[in-house]
Design brief:
The complex is a heterodimer of chains A (324) and B (291). With 324 residues, chain A is mostly helical. Chain A has 17 helices and four strands. In chain A, 76% of the residues lie in helices and 2% in strands. Chain A is globular, with a radius of gyration of 19 Å. In chain B, strands 1-2 form a two-stranded antiparallel sheet. The mean pLDDT of chain B is 88. Classes of the chains: A mainly alpha (324), B mainly alpha (291). At the A-B interface, helix 5, helix 6 and helix 15 of A face helix 4, helix 10 and helix 12 of B. Chain B: It is a multi-pass membrane protein.
Chain lengths: 324, 291
């Protein structure tokens, strides 16, 4: 555990410094500070996606759906009188369990079918958000979500941004610890060659399920914080596009690298806000970006620059497993 | 006799939707079976065909039959161009299905964006002038001749597709590649040519589905995504690469949608697809008709 922190220590310190500095530097302009807060929230999501896509080799397009279930559950619990801090763990755990329940049949499948199935599942979750009007207020969405209570007052402004920074740092520490633990190495072994992993005595389906549960928790915690931070949730907030964007941030930064996901998030999360004036062509630009990444940068930015980093995550897991 | 009316109307709707679902899912499964491309943009291609038909028939005032043939014909050079520019780059990439999937999601985004700033501005509901005038009574149930013609054409196209895959030289080569591309290559099949042909054929069938749908129903831009998802669910349940599976499950889905929509809403029908898909995956992960 300390090994892992020492190995990525410098990165974590730099990231933490940047994460805490961001809200303070942008505090003068509420709009930019909000974009910064959204980026920090996305770091939580991309950390989960990085675990799932970068290390476990799963591409869950139902990621946003799980975040949405958690967000709606948190809002519902708060409406029922619970405080945000009680609602958060309940909603997150509930959403992660629902995600595992829905993903269970698909997780048994080899490789790519899981992605296809998760796309169908995501679409149905979005439909459910629209359909169960008395729980979700349908297409209209739920607005004016109260901010969480924090030492007697409402948590908002720079205070909330700093909480999100803490959350993002916590997510990255958790990712580092998971990836460097034997569990993370088993995941890489499964990603690289699941038949070999099976022969080495790894229960492939169980590893995938565990990874999916943990990754879903990242999604769910981010979703629960999203609701009070933005103050508005609707089925569109958590549609397949969000799943794709989060995936794109990981793929763009470099899959299988710890900091690639963060680089991808920093570059891509503010994009929708910067493109606000060009909202008509936003979809087209996103599409071109996706195609550009897949054609020009199959390994992502960090993966493309340092082939070493990608190779480094690949073989030790297998080697250690063979030694064990 | 209202019961009889409901029965025949549900049967007809189920048949009509089933034929369209079958066509699109067959197109998707042909492309996936050969080049391993899970084409998430199939719904956008489907919508593109329907919108192009609308432009040709309404804006340019062409005769509907001419417009339909023009649109389906135009899908061939369009597919060849796309194959040339993007698809063929990945033929030798390991794990190319992920690359293709992401690529097709990018194409989906681009087309969705283009549609919303072009067609989306004009109207939110598109209707094609009927293929032919008049109404036929199936028992007590009146059907417009235009919709009937769309159904008959769809069934004929499915039959032609089966005949092509079963009896024609190219169809046999496609099936050989589905089953074992190395062995097919050793037996003198030009695998890359078959890839190209499958891509064109699959998109042609999807475009035909879009054209028939536009003749049978008025449509809006949201049809694309639900068609993509439905086609994927059909392909997963039927067994990827199996055209028989795509058609059989497509018909089941059509009837499910017709029956569930008669008693509840189409959304509930979509929920039932998911339930069916998860159930099948638990019991038979390779799909019902996989070899």
């Amino acid at each position: 555990m300390t090994d892992a922190l020492r190995k990525h220590g410098r990165g974590l310190v730099v990231f933490a410094a940047a994460a805490y500095a961001l809200p303070l530097l942008l505090a003068g302009n509420r709009y930019f500070a909000f974009i910064g807060g959204i980026a920090l929230l996305h770091v939580v999501w991309t950390a989960g996606m990085s675990l799932l896509y970068g290390y476990a080799g799963l591409m869950p397009l139902m990621f946003a759906g799980i975040a949405g279930i958690s967000a709606y559950a948190a809002v519902g619990l708060m409406a029922a009188g619970f405080s945000f801090w009680t609602a958060l763990p309940i909603a997150a755990l509930f959403a992660a369990l629902v995600g595992v329940g829905l993903g269970l049949p698909a997780l048994r499948l080899k490789g790519f079918y899981f992605t296809l199935c998760s796309l169908v599942i995501q679409t149905v979750i979005t439909l459910a958000f629209v359909y169960f009007v008395n729980l979700t207020n349908g297409d209209t969405g739920i607005s004016q979500i109260a901010p969480p209570a924090w030492f007697g007052g409402p948590l908002q402004g720079v205070g909330f941004d700093l909480v999100l920074a803490t959350l993002a740092v916590g997510a990255m520490v958790a990712l580092v610890l998971i990836v460097e633990a034997p569990f993370g190495r088993r995941l890489v072994a499964v990603r690289e060659d699941d038949e070999l992993a099976e022969m080495l005595g790894i229960d492939v389906v169980r590893q995938k399920l565990a990874a999916f549960f943990v990754g879903s928790l990242f999604a769910a915690v981010g979703g629960a914080f999203y609701a009070p931070y933005v103050g508005f949730v609707s089925p569109r907030s958590f549609d397949v596009l969000l799943s794709l964007n989060i995936w794109l941030m990981v793929a763009f930064g470099g899959r299988g690298t710890i900091w690639g996901a963060v680089v991808g998030t920093v570059l891509l999360a503010p994009l929708p806000f910067l493109l606000q004036d060009y909202y008509k062509v936003k979809d087209v630009i996103y599409g071109l970006l996706i195609i550009g990444v897949i054609v020009l940068l199959p390994g992502g930015i960090l993966g493309g620059l340092g082939g070493r980093a990608a190779a480094g995550t690949k073989s030790p897991g297998l080697r250690r497993k063979e030694a064990a | 006799m209202p019961t009889e009316l409901v029965l025949i109307s549900t049967l007809f709707t189920g048949l009509m939707l089933g034929v369209i679902f079958s066509l699109v899912a067959a197109g998707v499964t042909i492309i996936y079976g050969s080049i391993w491309m899970p084409n998430a943009a199939n719904g956008q291609f489907f919508l593109l065909a329907a919108l192009a038909l609308w432009s040709a028939a309404v804006s340019w005032g062409l005769h509907p039959v001419v417009a339909a043939l023009l649109v389906i014909g135009a899908s061939v050079p369009a597919s060849l161009l796309l194959e040339q520019v993007l698809i063929r780059r990945f033929y030798d990439v390991p794990n190319r299905n992920v690359s293709y999937f992401v690529l097709s999601l990018g194409i989906t985004q681009i087309l969705a964006g283009l549609f919303s700033v072009t067609y989306g501005v004009w109207s939110d509901q598109f209707q094609i002038p009927p293929l032919m005038a008049g109404i036929t009574f199936l028992g007590p149930f009146p059907v417009s001749n235009s919709r009937l013609a769309a159904l008959v054409t769809g069934v004929a196209l499915l039959a032609a597709l089966f005949a092509l895959l079963r009896y024609h030289k190219y169809g046999r080569a496609i099936r050989a590649v589905f089953q074992n591309r190395d062995a097919a290559s050793l037996r003198g099949v030009n695998v890359r040519a078959i890839y190209r042909l499958s891509f064109v054929l699959g998109n042609l069938v999807v475009a035909a589905g879009g054209v028939l749908y536009a003749f049978a129903y008025s449509f809006d831009l949201s049809v694309s995504w639900s068609m993509s998802i439905t086609a994927f669910a059909i392909m997963i349940i039927g067994g990827p690469g199996s055209v028989v599976g795509a058609v059989a499950v497509g018909m089941v889905f059509g009837f499910t949608q017709a029956i569930v929509s008669a008693f509840a809403s189409p959304t509930v029908a979509t929920f039932s697809y998911l339930g069916a898909m998860l159930l099948i995956l638990l019991m038979k992960p390779s799909g019902l008709f996989a070899r």
